[in-house]
Amino acid sequence: MSAILQSAATALNLVTSADAVLWTIVARSLSVSATACALACGAGVVLGAWLGVARFAGRDGVLTVLNTLLAVPSVVVGLGVYLLLSRTGPLGGLGWLFSFKAMVLAQALLVLPVVTALTRQVVEDAERVHGEQLRSLGAGTLLRALLIAWDERYALLTVLIAAFGRAVSEVGAVMIVGGNIDGFTRVMTTAIALETSKGDLPLALGLGLVLLAVVLLLNVLIAVLRRWRQRVDGAAIGGMAVAA
Amino acid sequence: MSVVPAPAWRRAAPPQDVQTLEPPLFALRELGVRYGAVQALAGVDLRVLPGERVALVGANGSGKSTLLRVLHGLVRPSAGQMRRDGAPRVAMVFQRPFVLRASAVGNVALGLWLHGVRWKQARAQAAAALQRVGLQDVARQNARTLSGGQQQRLAFARAWALRPDVLLLDEPTASLDPHAKREVEALMADFAASHGSAGPAQPLTMVFSSHNLGQVKRLASRVVYLEHGRVLADLPVHDFFDGPLPEAARLFVKGEMT
């Protein structure tokens, strides 16, 4: 018990004393996940919004595949990206394996289905209620999808935050394609795994605390956004008499 | 072979204040709409002439909203035919208007932009449209924070900005408080007195659904009574309220069926 407490105390000291090693890993981890989320959101929001509005043969099949991809383990994504980027793989010529770019690509592919599926749900729900009025104004499928996505931007912000949470807390994909190279591709989750296996609990705990703080901060942000949206939407609803 | 005259309530109802020689804007023949197992419209014959102010009345679920959507082109008929004369510009105002999380002027400008007007020009036209409905003071305000009545007036501004030849209104005052109702009804009257995209020679055509018979009396030139997706009566407004009617329509007018 005292060993745990001692480790926790050392970890807190590392966090508060601006330890260079710890904060370099934290910064790298956040930048990998933020870049991956930005890329995944750029594509995922447009694709998800379009899927929420468009009706075409085979749409149910596409949605089933999309929902299946939500449950793909990060190590499997890592393995897929590894095969793509390895020297004999189709993208081997890029020389990205064990680099920042490889980790970004893996995490982007990991969260792309999350962003796409959640965006699709948000946009489809809104389209069911408002889509007809946008159609009456002359908006075609893609414009309608983008307009609704833009209108639901606060709901989508929570999607983006959830995606970032998924990216920053995963370990399997970045471990496989990044290689956990000290000072180069080591991020919070891979460092925690390594330091724990080495028995260096204070650094692992310190990183764990930062990771927990990041996830906590994200959840607080989601809660604040939800409350803010409820206040804004409530004001609009309040002006309308209840229909008979 | 003898020709049996149609009952009085099913006779063609040329309005007294429009040219009956003009081709109808909309001509529906034996039109039907089915949503899965639900027959929303069946065997509807209807002609809407330029400049008419047609009120669709009937109980909930009688097919009024579906008929408006068919006229707009939002719902495709599953049976029968609908012919349009030329390509009239159609705008529609819904019972609960959808406004984007954007400024009031941005919401109105969007409709114009979607019709190919450049954004800068669209905003200028939108500002004029907002002025017409008395919302110039809230033009820059987030439309979601407007009251229900203001949002409905914004929807009218959005429709008016498009300079439509035909305005369709789906129970536009049903969700509003009495004060907002009066304001919106005044806008409807203002619209009814205006003209279409071709200028004063082309009066605006208005088709609206309503449960408010007083409103129907005040605004309509002709009343179409629907029940279970069928047109049971199609009469000039004075004949509808003063003449013989089928039993269901008579009860509806007396307020014994809503």
Q: Would you summarize the structure shown here?
A:
The complex is a heterodimer of chains A (244) and B (258). With 244 residues, chain A is mainly α.
Characterise this structure.
- The complex is a heterodimer of chains A (244) and B (258).
- Chain A has helices at residues 2-16, 20-53, 59-69, 74-85, 100-136, 141-151, 153-169, 172-178, 188-198, 201-238.
- By secondary structure, chain A is mainly alpha-helical.
- Chain A has one domain: Orthogonal Bundle (MetI-like fold), CATH 1.10.3720.10.
- In chain A, helix 1 crosses helix 10 (201-238) and helix 5 (100-136) crosses helix 8.
- Chain A is globular and about 65 Å long.
- Residues 236-244 of chain A have low confidence and may be disordered.
- With 258 residues, chain B is an alpha/beta fold.
- Helix content of chain B is 33%, strand content 23%.
- Chain B is built from eight helices and nine strands.
- Chain B has helices at 64-72, 104-114, 119-132, 148-161, 178-192, 213-219, 237-242, 247-254, and strands at residues 26-35, 38-48, 53-57, 79-84, 90-93, 166-170, 205-209, 222-227, 230-236.
- In chain B, the strands form two sheets. Chain B has a six-stranded mixed sheet with strand order 5-6-7-3-8-9, with helices on both faces. Chain B has a three-stranded antiparallel sheet with strand order 2-1-4, covered by helices on one side.
- In chain B, helix 2 runs parallel beside helix 4 and helix 4 (148-161) packs parallel to helix 5 (178-192).
- Residues 1-5 and 11-19 of chain B have low confidence and may be disordered.
- The A-B interface holds A 129-130, 132-139, 143, 147, 150-151, 153-154, 232-233, 235-236, 239-244 and B 69, 72, 74, 91-92, 94-102, 110-111, 114-115, 142, 144-151, 158, 174-177, 180.
